[in-house]
Model the fold of this input.
Amino acid sequence: MQSMPFPSNAQDASLPSMRDVSPRPTQPWQWAAPSEDPPIMFKFEMSGGTEVSYCYSDLRETRLINPGYLQLCIYGFEKYLITIEGRKLEELASLLSKGRIKSIRELGERTFDRPESEPAIDRVSVDQLTGTG
Done:
C-alpha cells in the first residue's frame, strides 16, 4: 500500500487520542453546526423530565429583554409565550433567531456546581395566550 497517493488510515502516534481531549463545558442548549441542515423543530427539556417541541415555522418573535431574560412568541394551533430565565442568554437568542437551536435544557435552580461564568437556564415557563389579537 505504499504506492497509494494518499496516506493510509493507520494510527499516527503524534495524534492525541480521544481520551486525552478534555470535554467542553456543558451548555444548556445544543445547536446545529453550519455543515448540518437547519432543524425543523426545537425541543425544550424541562428539569422535571417533560419534553416539548415546537416548529421553527411557528416561532414568530424572540425578545431578549436583558442577558438573563428571553421571551419567545409561538403562533401555531395555539399561541404561546415562552419565557426563559437564566444568565448569559445572548448566544441562545442569536442562535434561535438564526434557526440553529436543536434543544434547550432547563437546569433548575442555581447551585454551586455551575460557575457564574457559564450560561445557564434556571427556569422555563410556557403561558398559553388567549384571544384573537
